[in-house]
Prior knowledge:
Blueprint: H1 10-19, H2 26-36, E1 41-44, H3 51-63, E2 75-78, H4 82-95, E3 103-106, H5 113-121, E4 125-128, H6 130-138, E5 149-152, H7 155-160, H8 164-173, E6 179-184, H9 189-196, E7 203-206, E8 217-223, H10 229-236, E9 245-248, H11 252-264, E10 269-272, H12 278-289, E11 295-298, H13 300-303, E12 313-316, H14 323-330, E13 340-346, H15 351-361, E14 367-368, H16 370-376, H17 386-389, H18 400-410
Parallel strand pairs: 1-6, 1-7, 2-4, 2-5, 3-4, 5-6, 8-13, 8-14, 9-11, 9-12, 10-11, 12-13
The chain binds adenosine monophosphate.
Adenosine monophosphate binds at residues 21, 24-25, 28, 47-53, 307, 335-336.
Amino acid sequence: MNFNELGLCKEIISAINEKGYENPTEIQKNAIPHILMGRDILGCAQTGTGKTGSFIMPLAEILNTGKSKSRMPRSLILAPTRELAMQVSEEFNFINKFLNLRMALLIGGVSFSEQDNKLAKGVDVLVATPGRLLDHIERGKVIIKDVKLLVIDEADRMLDMGFIPDIIKINKLLPKIRQTLFFSATLSNEIRNIGKDFLINPKEITINPYSSTSENIDSTFIKTNSKNKMSDLKKLLYIDPIKSAVIFCNKKADIDKVSRFLKKNKFNTASLHGDMNQNLRIKSLERFKDKSAEILIASDVAARGIDIDGLSHVLNYDVPNNPEDYVHRIGRTGRAGKRGKAYTLFDDYDDKTIILIEKLIKKKIYKTTFDKIFSSQKISYNNFNPTKEKNKYKSKTLLPEENYSNFKESGKIPDFLN
Ligand code: AMP
């Protein structure tokens, strides 16, 4: 199936061609025709599957006829974080390139006056985080009783972040007769129950269940200990040439520590965590996206769902406490058909969490040591000075034998035997 068969207008097809998407992804193939027929959707899809396009493309198609009234948006997209809302708005802007739809973005921490002007003129699409939207509804700046199409993105994250009461409040202000698209990376019973309040006879679409990690990602766990953790992190940065990497830390204090350490070692880094104000977060993301910073040091909540083109590596300074966060973290790489690498530092006390991750992803995790990796690359790191040697050692991460012993357990044929 190609994009021409989905029932999208030529302006949207031209925008898609310009962006370089060749074929619709699974979620796009499955969701777009149903959305265009007016069905509610209960979609289970992770970020990285093309899920944003799956609702933005038909939404633009549906809204292409009709006109908006002042302060009364015709559609509403709710996202749990500011970064995700920004990403959704970017995707909308490119799909809208040859259309004339108007969009406003309501997210915390940025000046409201420009968005307020847009709202006053009338917008077709309002992208918002729940708290910020309620603020503006309460101040009389937005009226949502004319919304014909509601999208709730990353409902499970909304639940984690405590936004469900806000969403329920918003739902009470929306018209009962409307179309609703409800997306979540998991479909737990709790999420399904929440979904029931929003959806009428939805078409359920499940793509790439949450418990799976992409086949495009090579993930390796490397033994460390608390004493050597920082210098081990530095070694991690020299296993492969790194184009752009996200380093995830469990604690905010570690983000600051890692950032200071890497800056001292002449890396260009940017940080992203929930305690930063919105302007700093946007600046960090921009520096990382325009490649002036090669490494982004981030917390789980702040980086959730962020889509960055060409991310070569995910490096976990810690094993995440929540096994599901591991899937989210490494899912930042290996996206849209590209290969990616993930390395995770682990210590003895992580054993229990690793077992839980293995249960979730239904795969054995490959564990090794720096000694093994470096001896396989024939590198001695006794006098290892990464700052001087930066990216000198071209990638050849594991000896085939090591790779094989790992895959013997999984039953999967290693690449070098193919
Ligand atoms: P998402 O799941 O919405 O976070 O999208 C993940 C990535 O896939 C983004 O970089 C999109 O630009 C990209 N993408 C979306 N649809 C397609 C497509 N049909 N073909 C190739 N890449 C796509």
